[in-house]
Each structure stands twice: as C-alpha cells, then as structure tokens.
From TrEMBL:
InterPro entries: ACX-like_C (IPR049517), ATPase_NBD (IPR043129), Hydant_A_N (IPR008040), Hydantoinase_A (IPR002821), Oxoprolinase-like (IPR045079). One of its GO terms (molecular function) is 5-oxoprolinase (ATP-hydrolyzing) activity. One of its GO terms (cellular component) is cytosol. This is 5-oxoprolinase.
C-alpha cells in the first residue's frame, strides 16, 4: 500500500509518500498557495515519483481554517438567537487577555450586531418549553437574511443544549424558506451549557464551513481527476481524521489540524527513541507550535481560541502557538528595542534571501548571515536564494539603527528568537507543573532543528531529538492517525454512586451515535475503540477537569480519587474532604487505521558523511569558528560526532553548537546531548 500524508503550512506544503511493501519514503516540499491550498497539494504530489493514481491512502492537515480566522477572510454570517440574548456573542465573558490593560481593545465579534436577529421562544434549564417558538418571526428573520445575501446561518437558542426542539424547527423553516443557505445549530455542534461558549463555537463552525468546503471539494475533485479513488481524509484538532463529508458540517474541528499532526508525529518519534515524556517543538516559516506528551499521552484541552474571547469548545491537542518562524520579521519598536515577530513574510514574498521581493530582515536571513544556513542548499538546491540580500536588509534595518556590527545584529535576532521559543516551552511545561528536565525536546519543522539545541540549553532540557525528515514531520503525523469522532453532553450531578446508572445510560446513547458516524465512514465494527471521560469539578467551582473512566463503572470513589490527583497536578491544590460534582460526559470513538512501519537504517560512521567545512558564528564562542558540515543522507546508524557541526538535508538544517554531541540511532533519528 502506498500512503501519502500532506501538511499545508503557511509557507510550505509538505508531502511524504510511504510504500509499505518496499519501505521506500519520498519527501517533497513546495511553496504553499494561499489563494487555493489544493494547488499546493497537487504540486507537491506531482513532484513525487509515485503517481497520484498509485496512492491508496491520503490524509492531510492544514492551517487553512486557522488562517481564515486570523485574517477574518470569512463569509458574512447570520445568527438567530432567543429574544433578549442578541448580544451574548459580543459581551462574551467580559474578560480581556490582559485584565489590567484599560486601553486594550477586544477582538470584534464574528457576527455584526445588525446580523444577529432574535426570535421569541424560551426553554428553561430543565428542557421544558416555557414560551413556544414564534414560527412567523423565524420566517421573517430568514427572509431578511436572504435579502441581505447571507447564506451562512448559525442558530443558538438559550438552553437548546438540554432540548434542541426549537432549534430543529428553526432549521426546518430555513430549509423551507431559503434552501440555498447553510445552517448550523448549537444543539448539534455543542450540546453543553454556557451560552457564550456554545454560541462562539457554533458561529465559528458555521463561518468555516464555506471556507473549508470549497478547498476540500476542489482538492477531492483534482485528486479524483488524477486517478485517486480513496477517501480524502483531513486531520482534526482532537488527533484523528475525518472524511470530507463529516468535515462539511464540523469544519471548526480541523482549524488546528496541522499543529495537531505535528504533535502526534513528535510523540511517535520520541517513543521510537525510548522517551515517554516529550516536548514537541514545531517551527516553520510563519509560526512555532509547542506541545507536550507526558507518559505517552499528548496533553489535550477542550477549550482553545484563535482570538481571545471567542472559544472553540472542541477537543484539541493543547498547543501553544507563537508568531515566531523562519519568516518572522525583525524590527525595532518605538522604544528602540529589537523585536522578532509576530509579523511574518510568510511564503510570499518570504525572507530577503529567497529573492522573491522580500525587503525586511527575518530569522532565516539572520541564520544565513551567521553561516548556519547555506542559501544554495534551500530545498536541496532546488530553490533560488542568495546571502547578499539578507546581509543588506539586516544591516539597513537593524545593525545601523542600533549601532551594531552586522554579525552582532544577526546574533541578537537569533537570541530573541530563542527567548520567544523558551517562553512557549514554559507555557506547556513549568506553568502546568512539569519539569522540562524530565522531557526530551523533539524538534521539527523547517526551522526547528536550527534553534532546538539553544532552546534546550536555555531550558535545561538534556536531550534533543531530530527526526529523519524534520521539515515534513507534520505530514508524517497525518499517516499515524485514526478516524475519530467525539461527543460531549452536559450532565450535572453529585459524583456519587447514585448516578452511575444514569451515566451508563448516557454513555450508551453517545456510543450508539459514534458507531453510526464511524459506520457511515466505512469503519468496521472490529476496528472501533471507545474512550470515556467524566468532566468533574469541586462543587461550586467554575473550571472542570476531564477524568478518564472505564465501562462499566463499578464505583465513583476511584474516579473521585483520580480527580483529586489531577486537580493537584493542574492547580497545585486538592481537597479530598470537599464534595465533587459532575459537569459533563465525553466519549471518543476511534476507527483504528493500520499504521505504517518504517524501516531501520544501515550502520555507518560520520567520517564519510562530512561534506565540507564553513565558518559559522556561535554566541557562546563570540566569533566565527570552523564548523563541519554533514550530509544527513549519508549518516548511518551509530554515527556520532561533537559540535560545532551543521547537518544539511533537503527539508531542514540541524545546528549542533559547541560542546554538544550528536548520535544517529537505529531508526534514523539524531539525538543531541546538549
């Protein structure tokens, strides 16, 4: 079987093709095509020796949804809500990202006030109809949307999570009056209490459907035209894949799919090397994503956001993303301080050294000036680039204004980049009670291996793992996932044995729906695995934690004990004497997909892999030093050497600083001891 995994990044689209019979691996990188992401995918697959008509499995991740939210490149959305609750979406939870900044502006709502329309109806907390739905008012609202040309409609009625009868009827009326419109209802998207979170998730999901649907439809058509007749699968933020048919309704699920694929691949690489604790460090051209795996499990969250104040309440890998990539722009602020990012040159025009019209200094330009990166080797020499424009823009915009030498300016850019990375690592580790010294740093993305050793030294992380193909590691993650769906529902009760029967009944209903979804996607019953979690909190507390449980539930005592332990880990506090209540239930269903098994590499020494030497600057030495340059493809298992060294390959460059050592293990990963 020949499998293809693709990651659509902000700068490059990465492709990996794996032949299970021969063990051969092909990798390709091609510039992303933001105007139509499908074109970049087809370009990358076409560059591979394996024809598209020879593929039997295709899975991909992308940042298309995330970028659409960041850039607000979204369709005009209409929101139908209960009379008196028109402004829930804009009031949010009344907090700000920086609580004490009185001048900070919050992000604008995704739906303008004039497009948030009310209808009389009311359902109480128990699901009882207090005021019937005014169907004539619904028809009037729908006609208004049609006149305004708004064909993407979100429905979020108060207490619909406990009784979706009125939302269902609104959907039916929209279908009668305006059949061209796409409708998204909160009781189907997120049947949980808290109206702001439910409304936000429903609105964002509705907004992304046209964006995601258009490129997925085009991608599926182009693949089919070239002979691929399998499912077009897409990563979702929870760590599984979904078919295009499922994504057509649950579009917000794939908004964080690219970084999630990277986190999955990072865990896989760490386990290959014998590490159950790992920090994934994915630095590309536009941003850096940091994730954490503890005891073999990737840290997850059930609330995340692209813009503060507008949460997406779908399960996702817990990833910290910062605007720090190879294309991040170095600039001087009004106070005369050097900054790097979050603005980026992206794929077009890219860094100055790319010769595509970029006229601002970037991290990649600094790496070229320091001698870490040879522009003649970008994409294995398949890309026009040169060092002189990098020197010019850094000298003009950074060195001269700050009174620095060119090398000092480039080194300062690198140091600030590393400091930004360390802050992201702290957010997923020390801020959550984990000691970075207990983890290995798995560095990937085109730029991750350049900076990883310096980040690890700053954070006292002893080991750095560089995968065989770091620049396409997220694409690799797309080959390592299962078809997955998850459901949640509000379930409020004391965490006592009295509610076990009710929990079991609710779990059974959710399992039936998951089985139905997976069956529609062609998953055999024997390949389905289920996981169950109970959302719990101390009575009266706002925040909840998800506690794993098995079925059948024999006793709530063990589950309460596990909750206390998790609370201690997360918040450094627990109280076994305090009462605990259940807030919700969550079930994940996986259709297990056969995973590829990658072959081991042959033995070899480092001597035959050394290509040349060149002068490279290291801040610890304070000068340029002669540095060995190795060809990654020639490094066999068991090869070892000391820094300073640079390892080059088509999709990335690895920097081994002075006083660090590098060793190649049996599966081709390089382990740096820093």
């Amino acid at each position: 079987m020949r499998r293809a995994g693709v990651d659509i990044g902000g700068t490059f689209t990465d492709v990996i093709v794996f032949d299970e019979e021969t063990g051969e691996i092909e990798i390709e990188k091609t510039p992303s095509t933001p105007a139509n992401p499908a074109e970049g995918v087809i370009n990358g697959l076409t560059k591979a020796d394996t024809g598209i008509d020879e593929l039997e499995f295709f899975s991909h991740g992308s940042t298309v949804g995330t970028n659409a939210l960041i850039e607000r490149e979204l369709p005009r959305i209409g929101l139908i809500t209960t009379e008196g609750f028109r402004d829930v979406h804009e009031i949010r939870d009344a907090t700000k990202e920086d609580l004490w900044d009185a001048y900070q502006d919050v992000a604008d709502p995704y739906v303008k006030r004039r497009d948030r329309l009310e209808v009389p109806e009311r359902i109480d907390y128990a699901g009882t109809v207090v005021e019937p739905l005014d169907e004539d008012a619904v028809r009037d609202v729908v006609r208004i949307f049609e006149k305004r040309g708004i064909d993407t409609i979100a429905i979020s009625l108060i207490n619909a999570y406990v009784n979706g009868e009125h939302e269902q009827r609104v959907e039916e009326i929209v279908a009668e009056e305006y059949p061209e419109a796409f409708v998204c209802s909160s009781h189907e998207i997120l049947p949980e209490m808290f109206e702001h979170e439910r409304t936000s998730t429903t609105v964002i999901n509705a907004a992304l459907v046209p964006v995601v649907r258009d490129y997925l439809t085009d991608l599926a058509d182009q693949l089919a035209d070239r002979g691929y007749d399998g499912d077009v699968l897409a990563m979702h933020s929870g760590g599984g894949v979904m078919t295009t048919e499922a994504i057509a309704y649950y579009a917000a699920r794939i908004a964080n799919s690219g970084p999630t694929a990277g986190a999955i691949a990072g865990r896989y690489i760490a386990q290959q090397c014998g590490f159950e604790n790992a920090i994934g460090f994915d630095m590309g051209g536009t941003s850096a994503d940091v994730s954490l795996t503890h005891e073999g499990e990737i840290e997850m969250t059930d609330e995340w956001a692209v813009e503060y104040g507008y949460p997406i309440m779908f399960p996702s890998t817990d990833i910290e993303t910062i605007g720090a990539g190879g294309g991040s722009i170095a600039w001087i602020d009004d106070g005369g301080s050097l900054r790097v990012g979050p603005r980026s040159q992206g794929a077009d025009p890219g860094p100055a050294c790319y010769l595509r019209g970029g006229d601002k200094p970037t991290t990649t330009d600094a790496n070229v000036v320091l001698g870490w990166v040879d522009p003649d080797q970008f994409l294995g020499g398949d890309m026009d680039a040169t060092a002189e424009p990098a020197r010019d823009v850094i000298r003009r915009d950074i060195a001269e204004p700050l009174g620095l030498e060119l090398t000092e300016a480039a080194s300062a850019i690198e140091q600030i980049t590393v400091a930004n990375m360390c802050n992201a690592v702290r957010l997923v580790s020390t801020s959550k009670g984990y000691d970075p010294r207990d983890f290995a740093l798995v560095a990937f993305g085109g730029a991750g291996p350049l900076h990883a050793a310096h980040v690890a030294r700053e954070m006292n992380i002893p080991n750095v793992i560089i995968p065989p193909y770091p620049g396409i590691n997220s694409a690799l993650g797309c080959l390592l996932v299962d078809v997955e769906h998850d459901l949640s529902q509000t379930f409020i009760a004391d965490a006592s044995d009295d509610v076990v029967a009710d929990i079991e009944s609710a779990f059974e209903e959710m399992e039936d729906e998951i089985h139905e979804r997976l069956d529609e996607e062609g998953v055999d019953e024997s390949d389905i695995q289920l996981e169950h979690e109970i959302k719990m909190r101390y009575t009266g507390q706002w925040r909840s934690l998800e506690v794993s449980c098995s079925r059948p539930i024999e006793s709530m005592a063990a589950i309460r004990s596990q909750f206390h332990s998790q609370h201690e880990q997360t918040y450094a506090y627990s109280d076994t004497e305090q009462s605990v209540e259940i807030y919700g239930l969550h079930v994940t269903g996986r259709g297990v997909v056969e995973k590829p098994a990658f072959p081991e590499i042959g033995d070899g020494s480092a001597d035959g892999a050394q290509r040349t030497t060149r002068e490279a600057y290291f801040d610890s030495e304070g000068e340029f030093v002669e540095t060995a340059v190795y060809d990654r493809g020639e490094l066999g298992a068991g090869a070892s050497f000391e820094g300073p060294a640079i390892i080059e390959q088509m999709d990335s460059t690895v920097v081994v600083p002075p006083n660090a050592t590098a060793e190649v293990e049996q599966t081709g990963n390089i382990i740096l001891r820093v």
